[in-house]
């Protein structure tokens, strides 16, 4: 019996390691004993892997707090976004935090929004049609421009039909191609947009001058909500109500704002405003 107990302890410890580091070959957590959450490795500050390999971000801290309060064990693995979705859709994980599209609604049930993003156009100041792009106020006006997004962006795939779209392999490729004027428009929230630009400048200093010319336009184009999507056939699908109640409690007691503000940094526009009004 002692030997069986020791084996179980080793397996549980291994499961906790998966939560901290992720795995190269896919989720291998103990099926049925934890809620297996998979997500994007490169969507800062929402969810990302830092330079030390640690999983961080607003979604990570919100999910850890929520699942601690509802007393459900949680494991987290992050990968390239397209790969993550394949794991979750195939049943190798129970859920992911993203937008509930019509396509995803076939197999997922969504919690209340964990975060709502206001998306604006990012483009380069060097773009020859910069003035035209700045004047855009709706998705319908994207026609005639080359739009770019990354593989696996479900909301974009659903709403960009009929447009001239380039699908880049990763978020960073989107920014590099946009900075090189190989595309005109990238739709993103200012927070992840600017933080990803700054991170990429540090990673790819040779492209720093071009990347610094990427700016967000002022007109909000869309508002999208990120929820925890749980597979309808997961044994954990019944926690949706508990997650929603806990999220409401966290907003009421200040925990939610504390977590979100921790990851916010001033946009270039906000820095200019502060400099003008010290």
Summarize the structure.
The chain is an alpha+beta fold and 278 residues long.
Give the topology.
Blueprint: H1 2-21, E1 35-40, E2 42-43, E3 47-49, E4 55-56, H2 58-69, E5 74-79, H3 81-89, E6 95-98, E7 108-124, H4 130-134, E8 146-150, H5 154-159, E9 164-168, H6 171-179, E10 186-189, H7 190-203, H8 208-211, E11 214-231, H9 240-253, H10 255-262, H11 268-276
Parallel strand pairs: 1-5, 8-9
Antiparallel strand pairs: 2-3, 3-4, 6-11, 7-10, 7-11
The oligomeric state of the chains shown is single chain
**Global geometry:** globular
Order of strands in the sheet with the most strands? Answer: 6-11-7-10
C-alpha-based Rg, rounded: 20 Å
- Report the portion of residues in β strands: 25-35%
Give a structural overview.
With 278 residues, the protein is an alpha+beta fold. The chain has two domains: 2-116 and 228-276, 3-Layer(aba) Sandwich (D-Maltodextrin-Binding Protein, domain 2); 117-223, 3-Layer(aba) Sandwich (D-Maltodextrin-Binding Protein, domain 2), CATH 3.40.190.10. It is 40% helix and 26% strand. It contains eleven helices and eleven strands. The strands form four sheets. It has a four-stranded antiparallel beta sheet. A three-stranded antiparallel beta sheet has the order 2-3-4. It has a two-stranded parallel sheet with strand order 1-5. Strand 8 (146-150), helix 5 (154-159) and strand 9 (164-168) form a beta-alpha-beta unit. The termini are far apart.
């Amino acid at each position: 019996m002692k030997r069986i107990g020791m084996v179980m302890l080793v397996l549980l410890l291994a499961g906790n390691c998966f939560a901290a580091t992720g795995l190269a070959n896919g989720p291998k957590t103990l099926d049925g004993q934890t809620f297996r959450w998979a997500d994007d490795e490169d969507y800062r500050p929402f969810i990302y892997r830092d330079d030390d390999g640690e999983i961080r971000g607003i979604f990570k801290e919100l999910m850890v707090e929520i699942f601690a309060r509802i007393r459900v064990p949680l494991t987290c693995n992050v990968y390239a976004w397209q790969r993550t979705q394949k794991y979750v859709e195939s049943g190798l994980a129970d859920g992911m935090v993203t937008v509930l599209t019509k396509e995803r609604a076939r197999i997922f049930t969504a919690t209340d929004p964990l975060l709502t993003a206001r998306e604006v156009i990012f483009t380069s100041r060097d773009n020859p049609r910069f003035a035209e792009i700045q004047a855009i106020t709706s998705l319908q006006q994207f026609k005639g421009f080359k739009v770019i997004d990354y593989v696996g962006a479900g909301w974009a795939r659903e709403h960009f039909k009929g447009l001239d779209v380039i699908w880049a392999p990763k978020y960073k490729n989107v920014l590099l191609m946009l900075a090189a004027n190989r595309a005109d428009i990238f739709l993103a929230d200012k927070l992840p947009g600017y933080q990803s630009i700054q991170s990429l400048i540090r990673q790819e200093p040779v492209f720093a001058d071009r990347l610094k010319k990427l700016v967000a336009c002022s007109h909000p184009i869309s508002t999208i909500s990120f929820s925890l999507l749980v597979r309808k056939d997961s044994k954990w699908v019944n926690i949706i109500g508990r997650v929603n109640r806990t999220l409401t409690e966290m907003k009421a007691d200040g925990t939610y704002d504390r977590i979100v503000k921790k990851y916010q940094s001033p946009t270039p526009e906000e820095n200019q405003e502060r400099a003008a009004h010290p």
